[in-house]
Amino acid sequence: MSLRFPDPGQRAAIAAAAKAAGVSMQEYILSAAYERATAVESAFLEHFRASAARSGDAFAAEPGTTDPSTEQRAAEQQARRDLERDGRDHAA
User: Fold this and answer.
1) Is the pTM of this model over 0.85?
2) I want to staple 72 with a disulfide (CB 3.0 to 4.6 A). Which of 11, 40, 66, 68 is the partner?
């Protein structure tokens, strides 16, 4: 694994963090990447399960009554805002 950093300050910060954690820079970087990937996966699965539950409820409704209620629309809008907020948090 090649550890080239165009910013010497970034390299120094990562080296200091790795040293404080008692691991090599490679291990520190790989661990951080793994933690981030699993956090993204967990968020995706959480939102997927919530979406699947809402979809299941909609399809379980009687024919002709699939128009969402005011409460369901509000819940969907809140879920969308939560998802957009989580996307911004993970993009940082």
Assistant:
1) no
2) 68
